[in-house]
Specification:
heterodimer, A: 891 residues, alpha+beta, 5 domains, 11-stranded mixed β-sheet, 7-stranded mixed β-sheet, 26 helices, B: 111 residues, Arc Repressor Mutant, subunit A, 56% helix, globular
């Protein structure tokens, strides 16, 4: 009933309001009439009646308030009021909204990335909290290292562990899919049949493979396509079932299609197909593959705990199963260690790899970068608070007038809060745009070349953004309350600019300190990362990565005899040289930053060469040094005359020459590779050193070169130098593919891309830190400007008096600027202290750059102070242009 | 005129007094205030600032209804009338009030 009456009341709201006004007026007139009847003069009676009635506004509001639920009507009014107010002060509104947009946007984008990496369980997974990724460890020579990856090991642990309701093997490989010119490397998932049971994702077409199909000794050659591959390669046709496709070395029959968004455990590298792990394993080893512990295929394992089993118990169970597996291996081959020696240990880690014991470098940098974006949000909030408090102070008189007119404080609070909310919402909406753009930038930086799931169009990210907006709204709404609480009605009503210097509020000064301090921290970070990126780029790798294409041969089980393999490589080398745009080409066997080739090395006169460091080598043909742009320092490079049965030769790096033959001429020295009984290989040249594994200095890593013809000429691929490596890729691939026998195929990569991956941490750090550092500086400048400008307005009268008394305009500018700069100086000091403290933590991420580099601090301090000076000089200059007469006459 | 000013209303009694004034028939807000004053020999005063919100509350609860009419001096005025629910509520509130007053008196007399 009450509800019905309330609704009826609401339906005729405006009428009700008029009624109330009318009713109260009637009441007042009646009092008036009575008083006149008692002999009071009409004028006195009217005044007396008004006094008796008191504050009609409050009365009306309270009467209306009876009907209102949670002040819906007031909220609507407040929103309109807020919108009007904000439109009246566009600069303020734009400043706050932009600040918030940048803060919220950056954080939303960052959250979406961190969420994918660290928080969100794999899509469609049933009860992910009970699912674990298994990590296995053993101790060898006193050091614990990770182990596992063999099918035999997986099978043992699946068989002998008892605390799990299900387990599955998984792996992701880049495998050649298709035949001939259509062959491409694609992500293919190797999974055991139980894998699909971890998910609630019924096949879109056909079925998944069964445990029977995924069992030794003869696993089935069946494949489940991803939805995307089904659409792309087969046009979504239903008759795809039964089709055969070549994957890696085998032909597989399509038996099913996974549902649209099923990506298994790999949201960033969605597999195009799922094949039985056993089929893959059987194709890559001898007949004993199900029990061969030496045959690692790099598969992992996920398990689902039975209910009631703790994680610790699960890990202990896995460890025991691993021990039993070690025992089984020892029983079959006594050369392998006993469980007591190997000390098996297992970890049941969260199913997200980045939450486990071996996180990727991506997630590590994402984690600390979220810290950086949080600082930006903090600065943005400080800025917004500052602007809002400034506005509240400026509106003190307006507020006091409204309180005097009978607006209840609750209502006033409601209005201010609504204003904060409206601002936060505008900022939030703009922030979404920033986030969309920002997440694009972030995914390019963090996950280049991968499928990019649209990062922010999901409810998780949205709800985080919305809660940020609400938090900011509360903050923005509550800030002016500090002012209201202190409001002293009569004082504020009488207040005018003439009061001159309001003591600057401590809150605002504190916020300013926070802002400039934090921006110093971010700027120091930015400078350090930019500097270290510059150092990274200046590192001479010892070869020109950008001009070189790596050609790799994937034989897919095609067996050639050794003569045919040599002939194939020479044919490919010739073919490559014939491709337009190719300058040089060479055979090679190992690619910098992508694995190494190493054999024991023996040098007469040195007992144990091994203790000096790692000796890696490459086997190359005549044009190698020209192709790579590696300089020959002494002697000669590998030549076409270095043939199989000619004099055995080698070219060594400078560091290696110095380490092995200090104070001797390396040319003509003898090295033996692989065994000290093999014939001498004579050094014929010294090449400049190369970075073969990382950008970091490689002090104990040496490199040398052997002629391919004198080592394993039937193995390895090519390096090809072109005028434009990027445009060379496809013509080169298609030309070389023509030479490939059977299902074997060619892949090409820019060497620059391979090396670039190693540079990424520095590029990401430099880019993100610079962007956020600049952002922080802009925000701090806005903050300082607004505070100084506001102070100037407040002190107009005081400044006018000074001018009138003969103060020069330049001294006035000096006065105002000094005040602004003083606050910044304090902030800079705080920021430097924080940055210096954080340096210890930042240091390991920098490249040949000390975190406490005084030059960096000097530059940052300089920049911040210049910005602070400019930000306070603008309002100061305006102050100096005051006309003392008009200022003093005002009010 | 009494030298003492009007007494403060006991909390919760305003609704009861308003309902009481309406038992004899419809009345506008000003009339209600006057009537309370008269009936209590100027001891009780109903402040305008609490009267109107109280009337709105009674409207919302459905104890009174409102209608527009013409006043003694020919002006448009809003009249309140007791509803059936209002009568029941008045009876209940009055009984409760009397019970409490009796109890309080008993305590006071005992001393």
């Amino acid at each position: 009933m009450r509800l019905a009456r309330r609704l009826a009341h609401w339906l005729r709201l405006s009428e009700v309001d008029v009624d109330l006004v009318d009713e109260l007026a009637f009441h007042r007139e009646m009092i008036e009439r009575d008083l006149v009847a008692r002999g009071m003069s009409p004028v006195d009676a009217r005044d007396a009646a008004r006094r008796t009635m008191g504050n009609e506004t409050i009365m009306r509001e309270e009467s209306r308030g009876v009907w209102i639920w949670p002040s819906l009507e007031a909220a609507w009014q407040d929103a309109r009021h807020a919108a009007l107010g904000l439109r009246r002060t566009p600069t303020f509104t734009a400043g706050v909204a932009l600040t918030l947009a940048l803060g919220i946007g950056a954080n939303t984008a960052m959250f979406s990335l961190v969420d994918r990496l660290l928080l969100r369980p794999p899509a469609h997974m049933i009860d992910p909290a009970m699912v674990h990724r298994v990590y296995l460890y053993k101790t060898v020579e006193g050091r614990e290292r990770s182990t596992g990856g063999q099918y035999a090991r997986y099978a043992d642990i699946a068989r002998w562990s008892t605390t799990f309701s299900s387990s599955a093997a998984f792996g992701l490989r880049k495998l050649g899919v298709g035949i001939g010119q259509d062959t491409r490397l694609e992500n293919v998932a190797l999974v055991s049949a139980g894998f699909f049971g971890f998910f609630d994702a019924p096949a879109a077409l056909g079925r998944y493979f069964t445990p029977r199909e995924d069992s030794p000794p003869e696993p089935a050659r069946v494949v489940v396509l991803s939805h995307g591959a089904w659409q792309r390669r087969f046009g979504g046709r239903a008759d795809v079932l039964g089709t055969r496709i070549q994957i890696d070395a085998l032909q597989y029959t399509v038996i099913g299609v996974a549902p649209d968004d099923f990506v298994g455990l790999w949201p960033f590298n969605p597999p195009m197909a799922f094949i039985p792990v056993t089929t893959y394993a059987s194709a890559h080893a001898g007949a004993d593959w199900p029990t061969n512990y030496g045959h690692a295929i790099g598969i992992g394992m996920i398990v689902r705990r039975k209910s009631g089993v703790t994680i610790a118990a699960a890990a202990a169970d896995l460890g025991a199963a691993l021990g039993r597996s070690f025992q089984a291996e020892h029983d079959a081959d006594p050369r392998s260690g006993l469980p007591t020696q190997l000390r098996p240990r297992a970890v049941a880690a969260p199913v997200l790899a980045d939450r486990g014991p071996e996180p990727s470098s991506i997630s590590r940098s994402a984690t600390w970068l979220s810290g950086v974006t949080l600082i930006v949000l903090l600065i943005a909030c400080a800025n917004v608070l500052n602007l809002i408090v400034a506005r509240a102070i400026a509106r003190r008189r307006e507020t006091a007038v409204r309180v005097a007119l009978g607006v209840s404080r609750r209502r006033l609070f409601g209005q201010l809060f609504t204003e904060g909310l409206v601002l936060a919402i505008i900022g939030g909406v703009l922030g979404m745009l920033v986030a969309i753009w920002g997440s694009g930038v972030l995914t390019t930086a963090f996950l280049p070349g991968r499928v990019r799931p649209s990062l922010i169009t999901d409810w998780r990210t949205l709800s985080v953004a919305v809660s940020m907006v609400l938090a900011v709204a509360v903050l923005a709404g509550l800030a002016p309350l500090i002012q209201i609480r202190r409001a002293d009605l009569t004082g504020d009503l009488k207040a005018s600019a003439r009061d001159g210097g309001h003591p600057r509020s401590r809150l605002r000064t504190g916020l300013l300190l926070l802002q400039s301090g934090l921006s110093v921290v971010l700027l120091v970070g930015a400078c350090l990362f930019v500097q270290s990126l510059r150092n990274v780029r200046h590192v001479r790798l010892g070869f020109d990565a950008d001009s070189v294409v790596e050609v790799d041969l994937n034989m897919r089980g095609v067996k050639l005899d050794s003569a045919a393999a040599v002939a194939l490589r020479l044919r490919l080398l010739d073919a490559a040289k014939g491709v337009p745009g190719v300058v040089h080409a060479t055979l090679q066997e190992s690619t910098p930053f992508d694995g190494e080739t190493s054999w024991p090395l023996f040098v007469s006169g040195i007992d144990s060469v091994r203790t000096l460091g790692e000796f890696d080598f490459n086997t190359v043909s005549a044009d190698y040094f020209a192709t790579m742009g590696t300089r020959i320092v002494r002697g000669r490079g590998i030549a076409s005359t270095d043939v199989e049965h000619g004099r055995l030769v080698a070219v060594v790096g400078q560091l290696m020459a110095n380490a092995l033959w200090p104070a001797k001429d390396p040319i003509g020295q003898c090295v033996r590779v692989a065994a000290d009984t093999l014939p001498c290989r004579y050094v014929v040249g010294v090449a400049e050193d190369i970075h073969s594994q990382s950008i970091d200095p490689e002090p104990a890593r040496f490199f040398y070169y052997l002629p391919a013809a004198q080592w394993h000429p039937q193995e390895g691929g090519l390096f090809v130098r072109g005028r434009d490596a990027t445009r060379l890729l496809e013509p080169l691939r298609s030309r070389l593919q023509r030479e490939m026998p059977g299902t074997a195929f060619i892949t090409v990569r820019r060497l620059g891309d391979i090396v670039g991956a190693a540079l990424r941490p520095w590029i990401v750090g430099a880019t993100v830190f610079s962007a956020f550092g600049a952002l922080a500086l802009v925000l701090a400048a806005i903050g300082l400007y607004s505070v100084v400008a506001y102070d100037v307005t407040q002190r107009k009268h005081d400044l006018g008096v000074r001018l009138a008394l003969g103060a020069s305009r330049s001294s006035l500018v000096g006065l105002v600027v000094a005040q602004g700069v003083r606050v910044s100086l304090a902030g800079v000091a705080i920021g430097c202290a924080i940055a210096a403290g954080a340096g210890r933590w930042l240091g390991p991420m920098l490249f040949e750059q000390r975190a406490s580099d005084p030059r960096v601090f000097a530059v940052v301090i300089g920049v911040v102070l210049v910005v602070a000076t400019v930000a306070s000089a603008v309002p100061a200059w305006q102050a100096a242009r005051l006309d003392p007469k008009s200022v003093l006459q005002a009010d | 005129m009494a030298t003492k000013g009007p007494a403060e209303l006991l909390p919760g009694t305003l609704d009861l007094l308003v309902l009481r004034t309406l038992v004899r028939g419809r009345m506008h807000g000003y009339g209600i205030a006057q009537r309370v004053k008269e009936l209590s020999n100027d001891v009780l005063a109903v402040g305008e600032s609490s009267l109107y919100p109280a009337l709105q509350r009674l409207l919302l609860d459905g104890y009174v209804a409102a209608e527009w009419g013409t006043s003694e001096n020919n002006r448009r005025a809003r009249y309140y009338v007791l509803t059936a629910a209002g009568r029941r509520q008045f009876a209940a509130e009055r009984d409760e009030f009397e019970r409490i007053v009796t109890a309080i008196q008993a305590v006071l007399q005992f001393a």
